[in-house]
Amino acid sequence: MNEHKEQLCVAHATEILGDKWTPKLVLALSQGCSGFCAMQDESGINPRTLSMRLAKLESMGIVDKNNEKYILTKKGLDLVPILEAMAAWGNKHYAGKNDK
């Protein structure tokens, strides 16, 4: 893959994962949290923001809504290893340390 294409792909992934709530929502969904109220409790997002974020993720093909439950699509499930790697990196480099 050429450098320019890699930069575009990273930019696209950042569009999806770069907002404040998406990583938390994707992880919550991957761990079985699927109802609106449960996701609100798990993430601490206010209902209006949660509703907008879920609608955006649905329009991007990251989640599907089925009988008032939200599930990750294949595209959404492909984000989970990325988030797990980010968590491992954060744990390795920042866990228990004060940010300065």
Detail the topology: elements first, then pairings.
Blueprint: H1 3-17, H2 22-30, H3 36-43, H4 47-59, E1 63-66, E2 69-72, H5 74-77, H6 80-94
Antiparallel strand pairs: 1-2
Write down the overall geometry.
globular
Question: Which architecture name does CATH use?
Answer: Orthogonal Bundle
Strand content: 5-15%
Structural class, from secondary structure content?
mainly alpha
Mean pLDDT: 90
CATH homologous superfamily designation:
Winged helix-like DNA-binding domain superfamily/Winged helix DNA-binding domain
Order of adjacent strands in the largest pleated sheet: 1-2
Low-pLDDT runs of 5+ residues are: none
Number of strands: 2
* Total helical elements: 6
- Rg of Cα set: 15 Å
Report the top-level CATH class. Mainly Alpha
Question: Care to describe what's here?
Answer:
There is one protein chain. The protein has 100 residues and is mainly alpha-helical. It has a single domain, classed as Orthogonal Bundle (Arc Repressor Mutant, subunit A). It is 64% helix and 8% strand. The chain is built from six helices and two strands, in the order H-H-H-H-E-E-H-H. It has a two-stranded antiparallel sheet. Strand 1 and strand 2 form a beta hairpin. The longest helix is centred in the first third of the chain and has 15 residues. It starts with a helix and ends in a 6-residue tail after the last helix. The model has no long low-confidence stretch (mean pLDDT 90).
